[in-house]
Amino acid sequence: MERCLEVEQFMFYGMCQCVDSFLFVYTFLPLRALVTLKSLICSSLSKLKDNHGRKYLSAAGICDLRKIAVLMKCLMMLLPRDTSMIYHVIKSQTVIKL
């Protein structure tokens, strides 16, 4: 009986990890990307005023912008698709059923 409780706890932990990842991508990542874009715009405007050799973005900011670019590209590719048709095509494949 104790073993079933361990499996349930592990499944709950996995579900919490998935929810955390989902919420990060759709809430926190866009906010971080907006802050990075604001920082990029402000630093490029200040670069026009004075010619100091400053870095525009940090590595984390570049990574955030790339993640948003991938997310937007996937969204643009999936929007014109009919999801119900994709579901039925996948359901009819015998390899997926195994």
UniProtKB/TrEMBL annotation:
- Mostly located where? membrane
InterPro entries in alphabetical order: Tatp1
Entry annotated with the keyword Chloroplast: no
Which membrane topology describes this protein?
Answer: Multi-pass membrane protein
**Subcellular location field:** Membrane
Keywords recorded for this protein, A-Z: Membrane, Transmembrane, Transmembrane helix
GO annotations of cellular component type: ciliary basal body; endoplasmic reticulum membrane
Q: Which residues form a coiled coil?
A: none
In the UniProt record, does the keyword Methyltransferase occur? no
Q: GO biological process: any one?
A: positive regulation of cilium assembly
Stored PANTHER family? TRANSMEMBRANE ANTERIOR POSTERIOR TRANSFORMATION PROTEIN 1 HOMOLOG
Record's family? Belongs to the TAPT1 family.
Q: What is this protein called?
A: Uncharacterized protein
- Species of origin reads Macrosiphum euphorbiae
